[in-house]
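Handover notes (outgoing to incoming on-call)

Open items:
1. PhnA protein: sequence verified, structure written out, both below. Nothing else pending on this one.
2. Nothing else urgent.
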Amino acid sequence: MSIEEELKTRSGSKCELCQSSQNLSVFEVAPSDESSEQSIYICATCKEQIENPSMMDETHFNCLNESMWSEVPAVVVISYRLLKLLGREDLVDMIYMEDDVKAWADAGVNSSSNVVVKDSNGVTLNAGDSVVIIKDLEVKGAGFTAKRGTMVKNISIPQDVEGHIEGRVNGTKIYLKTEFLKKA
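PhnA protein structure tokens:
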């Protein structure tokens, strides 16, 4: 039986992330030994967004709330990586993995340790930290103002935007300039 046939049977001919039944193919979860245990069966939409993180649509990946609980380690690993990439540390913290699966998942996560981001007081910020906004900030395009004193928890450090952090304010994921933040 080929890997694709095994995955088709395992997944019930549906994307193992979003449950779509359209344009399905095999996706190897690197580092992989090219086996069905280290591959998943996903749709073209999921595959395109995984391969091109700049095109990632967070609303499409609401499906990770379900797939992160899969009994298939490869599905859990890719769910973990995507949730980390989306800055959803709240969900990442809920995922249970055996030590070897956790090591596999972490092996594919891009580390932001080479980017040093500091708050307005010069204190180094790390992914997962909490910060406090020190000035009212109008959020363009979202129609609200992020008020001074607002706590932003579980921040992420974007690789592509220097001097900014990414976090959720009023349930909206936004970029914030570090000059208007202090570590909590």
